[in-house]
Amino acid sequence: MATTAEHYLFVYRGKNRKGEKVQGEIKADNLMTVKGQLRKQGIISTSIKKKAKPLFSRAKKIVPADIALFTRQLATMMKAGVPLVQAFDIVADGFDKPAMRELIMQIRDDVAAGGSFANALRKSPRYFDDLFCSLVDSGETAGALETMLDRVATYKEKTEQLKAKIKKALTYPIAVLVVALVVTAILLIKVVPVFAETFSSFGADLPAFTLFVLGLSEMMQEYWLLVLIVTGVALYAFKEARFRSAKFAYAVDRYALKLPIIGSIIYHAVVARFARTLATTFAAGVPIVDALESVAGAAGNALYRDAILQVRDDVTTGIQLQVAIKARKMFPILLQQMTAIGEESGALDEMLEKAALHYEELVDNSVDNLTSLLEPLIMSVLGVLVGGLMIAMYLPIFQLGNVV
């Protein structure tokens, strides 16, 4: 098996052909390579040293977006006629993440040793799922790897874009509300006690609203750490329960679909993912039954995963795909019609692709509308929380002024 040369980052100083001082960085596997590259550039080096790593540096993890970029770049290289092994080298040099470069070079070594690309990918199931490996395997078998990689790259890119839109819809309001709660907690713990000391010298009954806020402040001062711990434990328990309990995950996914506005976004995203994944697998020549099983795994929602598996079982018995989808009563009419047209015309992948584009656009528009709708709503919530605390604190002062 070929060995992988580890690349380092070198910092150099020197002079160019004009005698001007220059400095910079070069990525290479050893010092001699750096000197050779500098000579080619006409630079006389005065100092070359390996760049020190930060003391508390933390390796960046590989994320799905990295896999999507790797697939797209590899597809581009192969379509340009670059041999597969050489394409790995070029793509690896374009990544700054050491973990990603190491992963690519590991795949390169397996392929260079005579193994198939799909089998090399299967050795890293954490980054390449069964659907990805199956599509690459189909491309290798059919002798159209570059075409299949292009389809897989498009699929991964669209999937990541869809995930980003969902995160955008959920992250913004959650982040603002968390900030609002933190600000409110700080006011209750640090600011309200100052007013409480002032009120103690009034010698008069305080308004009910002020008494309520003072009581809340005393509780937060005494139990703020307990509240923080309970909140953290609750979030962790929710995450673990959703991962470990199929019934709990099913219930969460079911209620998520019923949420106002956000439920609609999740619904359209699931349908778009279903259409996109099925279109990609069917175009790759994967049998419809196997394709539906892959689609179920990529559904992202427990209810629809079970529904797709039921569709697969119906198709296995000889029922048409459009009939099986219609029988579930969970898929929109447009998708049913597009599937019917695709089956009748023999262009199922094209019709599903158009359906996926339609529902992805719906998700995009819904996220934009949600953001526009939430901005004034969130400002109102912030105003009520912070303004309410201020009113509660100043209300006794106003009443005292009226008495005087």
Structural account:
The longest helix is centred in the last third of the chain and has 56 residues, at 348-403. It is flat and about 90 Å long. It is mainly alpha-helical. The chain contains 15 helices and three strands. The chain has a three-stranded antiparallel β-sheet, covered by helices on one side.
What Rg, in angstroms, do the CA atoms define? 30 Å
The gross shape turns out to be flat
Low-confidence stretches: 1-5
- The assigned structural class equals mainly alpha
Instruction: Report helical residue fraction.
Output: over 70%
DSSP helix count? 15
How many E strands?
3
The average pLDDT value, as a whole number, equals 82
Sequence of strands across the biggest β-sheet: 2-1-3
How many strands, which pairing sense, and closed or not: the largest β-sheet? 3 strands, antiparallel
Termini separation: 92 Å
Order of helices and strands: EEHEHHHHHHHHHHHHHH
Strand proportion, as a percent range, falls in 5-15%
